[in-house]
């Protein structure tokens, strides 16, 4: 396995499959009465979060703890860390001196994990950097998709919204394209960089013309400040043209899914009823984050013993989905 | 004063249209004679067999950091670095602390440069007070001061207000001074981190489109036509700007332009690893921009190579990419890059390389005692080996800073000796002790 996880560029289809298969096996641990494995006993994982995050940090912390690693949390927004006077590099060297085995880093500056990987011996896991990448989100999304679709080949995925500023979009496009899916990026031209076609995705500006032919509609969070940056006239207009409401959802093919990386702006990119509809697998995405992050820590840190248990074949832990178009 | 005889070198001096193998005799601070087998009487002989003898280089664009950031560079350390790079004159940018927007700051920098006495330290004055682009700096007082300022710029910022740009251009005409622009439309550049293109989108870094430079270049060319002011475009980085300058020159505009070594050497591909040493403003552009810069240097559209030498402390560059300040060192690698990237591949001949490093920048600054090896002129001379190979060592530089993007790169073309007003500042590639600080 790779030493650092900085970008989805690093992973081949085989490696992605290995991560997902391992996650599948590890997920069974969550069903045990004692939800803990000894595999990473004696290893130390540091969560270095320079940007506010609840779900990702907790998910990584829990993943490390389930594997019996010791966990250190260091959270500071970039500005207060700078004000405190210790540079990013000095912090990295401090953690290195303390013998940390892995650093999970989130930072508002794109490329901060790449820089960190150049400074330390520990494995670096990118938990989201600026507008660059969020590879563990992409992997948990692929995992969630695989629970419903046997094959990624030819799977039609629309990623809708603020691609320009989205690290989730970058990682997901790469992961999906690597696995053979067909990705269409949908949104106003101010939020969809024209160069994104070089990622192997196609671009569309009219959601209604796309929505009838997708297996998955993946909605990105629209930051409210984008309106003040004049990237679109109003949140109301955005919601009308690119938001997924029940009218648009009704145009989606049967068995298609709705996804969102969270946190949601209900009423903007997604309406409340769609987010809670049977097609929405948004809560599964959150739940799957734990298994995928356990899998990555296990594979990258080289767990010391077998985690036991049999591989589980795609058990359907999801709520029953309606088969008919609603 | 010791006399020197530089023996048997190839003398390349575009100003006097000379390109021949001969001796150069330096006497009383001036070029005493040029010819075959000159008398060696009373002179220290320097063997220049196989070397090039040329007028000392003139850098139009140096950030000295003194006053204000003497931890990063001083006038003395920059002068030593300049001499090591074959320079005998440089033009200090005004974005110091305090800003060079008054005659007292201009005279102070100029006087410190004279005291160091290693290169001619010329001063560019600010166009606006505190570089804010709203109120005129003391332009006339700086022009008439002992520093005799001939170039004015708000470098680091483009002048955003078109009326302010027009007024200062009009005013500069009274002093026959040059309006030098850092072409960047601030609203379009929008705190960008790198060149806007496929790579910026992939890396998730905010881009600075080529158009942010080209719009202001086009505006300034129009305003120069309107006002009759001499216009100089600093660090041209895009193919579009090269084309604008080419067209303006064809129409007879009084316009000159410079390009930096990094803009004809590196592309935005260097940003792949988020190395803050590769962060610079204007940003490293695309391969086609690099090719346009090279062809502009070759055909005379771009007049000069200027370094935009911008020292930064280690701790300032060793930050997250987004927080690191833009800028890179340039004085000590300019010749090597010009030879490696321009001469060796055959884009420019040797005469043109000397023109862009010395002859033309001396003219743009109005320096009559630089950029020429005419007999009788001040002996500002560089002797370099055009085929010697060397490896850039960041710790071996004269600069107080280390932020070269070329550490470890092997270059062709090495300065052997530099003479400033007849006195050696560099001998056998070593900066002389009396020059060192």
Can you characterise this structure?
- The complex is a heterodimer of chains A (about 325) and B (about 425).
- With about 325 residues, chain A is of the alpha/beta class.
- Chain A has 2 domains: about 10-135 and about 290-300, Aspartate/ornithine carbamoyltransferase (Rossmann fold, 3-Layer(aba) Sandwich); about 150-280, 3-Layer(aba) Sandwich (Rossmann fold).
- Chain A contains 13 helices and 9 strands.
- A 5-stranded parallel beta sheet of chain A has the order 7-6-5-8-9.
- Chain A starts with 12 loop residues before the first helix and ends in a 25-residue tail after the last helix.
- Chain B is of the alpha/beta class and about 425 residues long.
- Chain B folds into 2 domains: about 5-55 and about 375-430, Urease, subunit C, domain 1 (Roll); about 55-365, TIM Barrel (Alpha-Beta Barrel).
- The longest helix of chain B has 18 residues, at about 210-225.
- Chain B is globular.
- The model of chain B has no long low-confidence stretch (mean pLDDT about 95).
Question: What are the SSEs and their pairings?
Answer:
The complex is a heterodimer of chains A (326) and B (437).
Chain A: H1 13-27, E1 44-49, H2 55-66, E2 70-75, H3 78-84, H4 88-97, E3 102-107, H5 112-119, E4 123-129, H6 135-146, E5 156-160, H7 167-178, E6 182-186, E7 202-204, H8 207-211, E8 216-219, H9 225-228, H10 235-242, H11 246-249, E9 257-259, H12 272-275, H13 282-301
Parallel strand pairs in A: 1-2, 1-3, 3-4, 5-6, 5-8, 6-7, 8-9
Helix pairs in contact in A: 1-6, 1-13, 2-13, 6-7, 6-13
Chain B: E1 3-13, E2 18-27, E3 30-35, E4 43-47, E5 52-55, E6 57-62, H1 75-84, E7 87-92, H2 103-116, E8 120-125, H3 139-144, E9 151-153, H4 162-173, E10 178-181, H5 186-189, E11 194-195, H6 198-203, E12 207-208, H7 210-227, E13 230-233, H8 239-250, E14 255-259, H9 261-265, H10 287-299, E15 304-305, H11 314-317, H12 334-343, H13 350-365, E16 381-391, E17 410-420, E18 423-427, E19 430-431
Parallel strand pairs in B: 1-4, 1-5, 6-7, 7-8, 8-9, 9-10, 10-13, 11-12, 13-14, 14-15
Antiparallel strand pairs in B: 1-2, 2-3, 5-16, 16-17, 17-18, 18-19
